[in-house]
């Protein structure tokens, strides 16, 4: 079995926007190095000053060096039939695979990560960065942060790991069924093995235990593993994977509950890598306010947190349709409701549908009585229901409660619970903050599965 111990220096931290400036490949037979390849590479782009300060490699040094395409064939021949070894292997592999693919070579080979192996076979170290781990193991690194020096140190580390592997962990990780080398470098395989195949929510945490991403899933384990597949080489993904140290989860009875819990937890914890739900909000809402003459006016405006809206909408057309319904049912003034703007009086007054509030012919007190009834009518139009579905076990049911158009909460109840009693339900459910995103998910689900909805 031959290993290719690899180290590279680059112009930046992610393959899609950066290039390799130096590469070292040491072919290792498990006992010693039997072949060496090392060269600077002309990246054909400027080397940033901070990279030059770290590695000592500058534009002048690489200007006369070969470009990657000039040595791609040689690199591919060295790597394609060997086990690719590196410290944080997915970083080096992503760069080399990307650059080889640009030259027409598709690199497919098994990988070994000396970070992951060191955590398993050499437990108890404070840090598993190459420099600190080598210091702890008395491995001398000549020319730190250069490809040749770091690769030579990694080769010595590989020999230590091979000699320490009394239980055959390396062979297991290289087996066809093992997905371990696809895992982030700082995530233990046991963290993935403990995950259930149930619906629920999972939490990726960094080294300090801070939640950096929250996701929902129909099958937690399958969804988590899908994060680590594919060849996305963006900076965001590379940094994201590097920061994952542990995973927590919460099982839910249904995928719908997982959707809702995910939305609520993102709002509560605000993880840095959840972006889509942070930006979600309804665009328009119906508001009521009293003008200087004492008339209560209804109107559609862009959604705001304050004042509290009477109802929210995805589109302004949806809002206007509801407002026109209230106007017709309760003989409200279209001008005071901002449906008509460029008239002295609304057209409904001429036709007898408005008592003249727009002209001051109807008192504010009289008009406001009908506005009050319209608002009560709107409240009665808002649904109150329970959504009952399967639980986490056969001895329970999941239950979500919507009360007057607002999501109250969810939880698990006995199959014998009286669902028609709101107070009994509330005592068994966990309250959650309601928002339009969650309500939209619930209403969409009840439209698709009306048999699960129980009116209250």
UniProtKB/TrEMBL annotation:
GO terms for biological process: DNA replication proofreading; nucleotide-excision repair. Residues 197-275 form the GIY-YIG domain. It comes from the Bacteria. SUPFAM superfamilies: GIY-YIG endonuclease, Ribonuclease H-like. Pfam families: GIY-YIG, RNase_T. SMART domains: EXOIII, GIYc. One of its GO terms (cellular component) is cytosol. GO terms for molecular function: 3'-5' exonuclease activity; DNA binding; DNA-directed DNA polymerase activity. DNA polymerase III is a complex, multichain enzyme responsible for most of the replicative synthesis in bacteria. The epsilon subunit contain the editing function and is a proofreading 3'-5' exonuclease. DNA polymerase III contains a core (composed of alpha, epsilon and theta chains) that associates with a tau subunit. This core dimerizes to form the POLIII' complex. PolIII' associates with the gamma complex (composed of gamma, delta, delta', psi and chi chains) and with the beta chain to form the complete DNA polymerase III complex. This is DNA polymerase III subunit epsilon.
